[in-house]
Amino acid sequence: MKNLQTYTNEFWPNHIIPPHILESIARNGTEVQRTLAQRTLAHDEQVRARRTEEAKGLKGKAGSRRVQGAGTAHKNRVIYTANNSSSLPGTLVRSEGQAATGDVAVDEAYDGLGATFDLYWDIHGRNSIDDAGMDLIGTVHYGSGYDNAFFDGTQMVFGDGDGVYFNRFTIAIDVMGHELTHGVTAATAGLEYHDQPGALNESISDVFGSQVKQRFLGQTAAAADWLIGAGLWTAAVNGVALRSMKAPGTAYDDPVVGKDPQPDHMSRYVTTTSDNGGVHTNSGIPNKAFYLAAVAIGGNSWDAAGNIWYQTLLDSRLSSTAQFQDFANLTAVNANTLYGASVQSAVVQAWHDVGIDVNEGWLTNKAIVGLWTIDQDRNAWVYVDADGWKKIAYDNDNIFYDMLGQLSSAKASGKTVSMYISNNVITQLYVNS
Fold first, then answer.
1. Tens of pLDDT along 257-304?
2. Residue 301 in contact with residue 350, Cβ under 8 Å?
3. Of 280, 311, 336, which residue is a domain's last?
């Protein structure tokens, strides 16, 4: 069996229910529900702390990032039950190719893991989460009244919910696509899990989780509901889902679980220290950008729009600390490269509509012809092929001298570079190998 053991993202695991929902229940629920919510919060923190310590020991041991097309397809689902304990992985109940068991949680997990594998393999040629044939392992019936689901870097884990506010966590197929995509992100861009890179991390999981659901249901972008986690709430909750990519901030409004806090525009960006800088909150902004782009482009979300986002995730120019602006810029560049100006225009408009204007863009595979610098004045100008003189960003000493060193090395060795230009200033660059 191939089991992923080398992710180094210290914020594992990623839970589908954000802390602010559980904290609201812990304040406003019945005594029993407050206790369950507090127990889930404490459990999630313990698991997160344990994985953080494990990740520290794995630093530097991860395999190559952004690998694509490694080996033949290895679709191997393995489903266990924890029998309402916290022991993992538990008792084996269904393996790849076996018939349905009749246990709805087992069979939903099996189908959801399979639909996620199929999206990545059939559309992107990605061989499971790590692109090396990783087994897709899931454990259902985890804990007693456990109100969450998570991917811990090696497997999926599903609670049954408390039955009062939450249904079973296998009920929503996009939850599985969402959580497993955290593994894809860790194996590719490695986006840090805080503030804007963390919100991008969450948004990318929603983007591909929604594609898994839409493809499974045979829906076009125009026909889809764009809800994440529909069916998780019981009838007791005034809500339709955990999040709405189409209309962030409208998924629920309930006296016990709280109100959906997601913004749909940069003018409403939430600055907070909670939830690692609001990763589950501000993800609403790039979520809506993808929704707008997919609908404007037309057809299925997993075709052109999904491929643009996937290729951007693989793009070596996307750093682990990427901001919304960086991701938007690269999606526009990749849209043009893959599909031409009309699709690029749709992507640029989608980002504009959420308050992010794509900048001038990347000059790719250019030779450094000349380099003029006066270090004491922190001035450095680079002549790039026939594109003229460009100034290096000077707002930060580390950035300035790092780029100056890279450009000097590139010129001396004759290497070509890709660089991002904003207002005729080089703000980011990538030296091609």
1. 999 999 999 999 999 999 999 999 999 999 999 999 999 999 999 999
2. no
3. 280
* Residue owning tokens 């393999």: 121
CATH code for the domain of 235? 3.10.170.10
pLDDT tens profile 353-374: 999 999 767 777 889 999 988 8
Q: Which of 124, 178, 182, 280 is catalytic?
A: 280
Q: Is residue 302 part of a domain?
A: no
> Which of 45-49, 72-76, 170-174 tops mean pLDDT?
170-174
**Domain, as residue range, for 367:** 361-431
Percent of the chain residues past pLDDT 70, beyond the cut: 91
Q: Rounded to the nearest 5 degrees, what angle is found at the Cα of 266, between the Cα atoms of 263 and 267?
A: 90
Number of separate domains in the chain = 2
Q: Catalytic site residue 141?
A: no
User: What CATH number does residue 409 fall under?
Assistant: 2.40.50.50
pLDDT computed for residue 2 by the predictor: 35
Q: Note whether 222 and 298 are within 8 A (CB).
A: yes
Q: How confident is the model at residue 431 (pLDDT cuts 50, 70, 90)?
A: confident
Is residue 179 annotated as a catalytic residue, yes or no?
Answer: yes
Whether residue 327 lies inside any domain: the answer is no
Element (H, E) at 397: helix 397-413
Residue 91 contacts residue 106 (beta carbons within 8 Å): no
Per-residue CA distances from 170 to 109, 147, 159, 161 (Å): 6, 12, 8, 10
Q: Of 108, 179, 192, 202, which residue is the catalytic one?
A: 179
Q: Is residue 179 part of a domain?
A: yes
Q: Where are the alpha helices (DSSP H) in 161-303?
A: 173-187, 195-217, 275-278, 284-297
